[in-house]
Amino acid sequence: QERLKHALVKGIDQYVELDTEEARVQYPKPLNVIEGPLMDGMNVVGDLFGAGKMFLPQVIKSARVMKKAVAVLIPFMEKEKELVMQAALARGEVAAEEDMYSGTMVIATVKGDVHDIGKNIVAVVLGCNNYRVIDLGVMCSAEKIMDACREHKAQVVGLSGLITPSLDEMVDVCCKMEKAGFKIPILIGGATTSKMHTAVKLWPRYSNAVIHVLDASRAVTVVSSLLDEKVNVDYVEDIADEYTELREEHYAGLEERRSLSLEDARRKKFVIDFVKDPPATKPRVLGITQFVDYDLEKLIPFIDWNPFFQVWQLRGKYPNRGYPKIFNDETVGSEAQKLFNDAQEMVKEFIVERRVKANGVLAMFAANTVNDDDIELYDGDDERSDATRIGVLHTLRQQLEKEDLEAPYLAMSDFIAPKESGVKDYIGMFAVTAGIGLEDVIKEAKDQMDDYRVIMLEAIADRFAEAFAEAIHLECRRDYWGFAPDEKLSSEDLLKIKYDGIRPAPGYPSQPDHTEKGIMWDLMKADDVGITLSESYAMMPAASVSGLVFAHRASSYFAVSKINRDQAESYAQRKGMEMSVAEKWLRPILSYDTDIA
Prior knowledge:
Layout: H1 2-10, H2 16-26, H3 30-50, H4 56-91, E1 103-109, H5 117-128, E2 131-135, H6 142-152, E3 156-160, H7 165-179, E4 186-189, H8 195-202, E5 210-212, H9 216-227, H10 232-256, H11 262-267, E6 287-291, H12 306-311, H13 333-353, E7 357-370, E8 374-378, E9 389-394, E10 425-436, H14 438-447, H15 451-480, H16 491-495, H17 516-524, E11 532-533, E12 539-540, E13 544-549, H18 565-575, H19 579-586
Parallel strand pairs: 1-2, 1-3, 3-4, 4-5
Antiparallel strand pairs: 6-7, 7-8, 7-10, 8-9, 10-13, 11-12
């Protein structure tokens, strides 16, 4: 018993199968082993994690031990299940499997979204606290989620999403659950979500609580508060009051916010004198270049490890914030070092075993800005006309009023020479992934009940994908485009963006509209190297990165922020979209409120 408890608290799985079998023989029923030493150990883990004395990597390792122990017991439990349930029912005690848990939660990444690393972490943490978690995976429709809630008698639902279109999908789930008569609370999480969006768009559409959860460490507190009959009413009322204040703040902000008309914003656009300050030289390689099975070892110097520690919720305190100073932190330093050592072993595994591959595509085209906010792309470089136009990229312009009266109102099109100037300009685009073959490796880890390995695989693949984007951008600047052939920057300087040009991506502040990815994919044929788009324009595999490449030294990153109805109408017309469709994709940045069908 003590060995099992020790194994769980320390996350050691080496002898857990043998110790579990020994305990099974000693206890009257296999279930007693779970309810006794295993849950005693997991309770210690939960208490330490809640008190900040244990960290997420340790909790994930403890969950791995728990799953392997339970796997030993399951065959025996199945044989006794009917007898156990009948006997328990007769005693008025445990009458069903779900009654053995603190509660049951269905968790899913919503339709159109493929990112699940955060969801996986939440599922593991809740499981460590004796919650039964039904993980539906990714790309889950409202119907699939509701069916699972009915089948498993869920008491809580968790919705996850990373890309902005997932916000509308969450609205859809809330509306459909309301219509179907569900009365269970919904938790919201993921990089694109926020407390404000939950309060404004989700809470009013559902009769029960819809609560934003910032990260995995908060999930247990929220779920336990919702399911505790002694405190849940007061807890939900407090949330309701907070969200009411947020909605009032939101709508007051809409009224107070001042902005320029699109026409005035265009008059104040960022102007580059492309004659005195000409565009970058013509790319050495126009058209499409594919990278298949790119050497992962070449990507190691480009890896930014800071987001890796953020995934695992390890944060050093000043002056030990960030990598590598985090290793010196008194509280998390030791665990961060252990985690980093495990990461290095997995990096070696990726390189040696070659089961996970990196593919990418880089494309460069002749380009000029037209009608202020659009960028035309042409086939070849000789003629730039309707006959040679192969696509149009649409950009969005800042409209919120600025304190500096001389400040320009930016759009990405400002960084490309206008067609009427007669100056030849160019634009690049890329898509890279480090996720080819990853799904099979993750499936093996899941079959082995190794949550720690699953999350580590996803985290390392993400690091390689981001490193691939950095490496391809460098190769573009030095070789394929060649406008910076002598560039020699350190990895640190690369991460600080000390080079000329930018690589903004659709779905990010400089171009918040994900649908622009569809145009990029058509032009650079990213599907041919195994990188595809979901119906919500999420990249698949999930460990993928894309972007546009602007070379002019005056180009810079910026946030479009909120736009007015006049720009939404212009954008819809330029893209050939119905206004309602354009508003759907632009909803997170609209300065006016729209209803969601």
